[in-house]
Amino acid sequence: ARMYYDKVFVDLDSNLSEEIRQRIVRHRIRMGLLIVLVIALIAGAVVLAMHLLDGYSYTSYSVTGSINREDTATSQYIAYQGGYIKYSNDGVSYYTDKGKAIWNQTYSMQKPQVKMECVAVGDINGNTVYVFNKSGLLGKIDTSLVISQIEVAANGAVVAVLEDNEANYINMYSKEGTKIYSIKTTVSGDGYPLDVSISNDAAKLIASYVYVSGEDIKTNVVFYNFSEVGQNETERVVGGF
């Protein structure tokens, strides 16, 4: 009799386990279908909203705020850190999105060029670069040769391409104006440095050189590394094509 009852309980436990397993499977299927349905509804709503907004015609508007602009003919604007940079031949300023001036720097430049990670303003065909961050002026760089282009890293270091009669120089400066390194290039040997770019830590530099080969104009792209990786390489060149 005891063996009989034990067998009955085992059968009941098996049936109960199978029923629970089936319930779990059905629950997972329902949840999966529900998730798919929700995703499909969200995707449909996004597509519908985009379609409606794309063809929507507005007939009125309301002004929520305004800022008086006192611009010169050369004033230009760039979005920066939730606000904007305004620059011209006479100076550069940083404003919040509400138009509040955070900092201002006056100068006299013929052709200002602005680059950002930090903010660098360089005088193209001149000799001066100003470096800023969100808080204000970090430093000023004066070059002995005229500047043809600049780039700035996130740490405030600036690369300036300088022009001379017989050669060009790609110089790296700290934000305080100290020269960190210099790459001398010649048009007859390397070509003309058409463009440069630097990494955020200022340790890596890419330069594009354009040169004439026979009747063809060609380009070399050269990779430099000024960290420990490139210290054993000739002129810090670690690659190129």
Question: What fraction of residues sit in β-strands?
Answer: 35-45%
Largest sheet: 4 strands, antiparallel
Low-pLDDT residue spans: none
The N- to C-terminal Cα distance equals 90 Å
List the quaternary state of the chains. Answer: single chain
Radius of gyration over all CA atoms, rounded: 32 Å
Shape by Cα distribution = extended
Mean pLDDT: 89
Q: Specify the helix fraction band.
A: 10-25%
> Helix count?
1
Structural class: alpha+beta
Output the helix-strand order. Answer: HEEEEEEEEEEEEEEEE
Number of strands: 16
Question: How would you characterize the overall build of this protein?
Answer:
By secondary structure, the chain is an alpha+beta fold. The chain contains 1 helix and 16 strands. It has a 4-stranded antiparallel sheet, with no helix packed on it. Strands 5-6-7-8 form a 4-stranded antiparallel sheet, with no helix packed on it. It has a 4-stranded antiparallel sheet with strand order 9-10-11-12, with no helix packed on it. Strand 10 and strand 11 (about 170-175) form a beta hairpin. The longest helix has about 55 residues, at about 1-55. The chain is extended, with a radius of gyration of 32 Å. It starts with a helix and ends with a strand. The model has no long low-confidence stretch (mean pLDDT about 90).
